[in-house]
Write a structure and sequence with these properties.
By secondary structure, this protein is an alpha/beta fold. It is about 40% helix and about 10% strand.
Amino acid sequence: MKRKAVDEALEEAKIIGVRNILALRGDPPRDDEYRLDTKDGQEEKEVEQNNEKFVWAIDLVRYIRRKYGDFFCIGVATYPEGHADESHPVEQSYERDLPYLIEKVEAGAEFLITQFFFDVNTYLRFEKMLREHESGVFQYIPIIPGLLPIQNYPLLRRTAKLAHCRIPSGLLEMLEPIKADDEHVKTKGVDALCDMIREIQAIKSDKPRGFHFYTLNLEKVVGLILENCGLIPPLRPYLCDQDPSAIDGSAMELNGIRDTSSDRPNGLPQLRKPPDLPT
């Protein structure tokens, strides 16, 4: 993506009060997708500056932090099973990815969202490794597990293959006999994801727990998972009567987890509260 497109997206986010940005490299766009309209007589230097490309996620992290300071809270991706960049990746492992992840955090990333996984033990080993890493950069940073709701059997197999994500044999054995029945697969998939969430929640941690769902624009199953796992707490009456602008976010509680930014060095990290918008 080129600089002008990045600037436009960030400025629009700032105007409407979006302060939390997930910085991803993504798939390289076609050159004509972000082609710039130039006026006659435009200086060559300006064209070159606007055509600056962001090749890696760290380029985007550095640019956002340099231009906007601490206004945005920047997140980046991480991969419990290692990043796969080709059809048949060689040496896919989180150990190989680790130096790049450290660079992104040191450049200004403040939270991590993982690639989806289906083996909870794989995720827990990965999180433990990050928390205990000798660099210390992951000690306090929020690590948000990525979860892929199971919509149907072919989509599960295809998506997992593209991401090079291992599906535990027990899950496949459960779904194989009913793979032709999408509704049955969906129901069993909700149960499987809820089991994963409860298993992660059962691990004691002094860090706030959150989950990121890869909806694939199919939100119904996500709603069922949230409801069955009790991930959406009831709205407390005293908050209904309180002026939202009076809630500063310095201490919030969700599902019994208290997140107090002042308990951490430098109050870091914490997601940003949107500013009051002009009326």
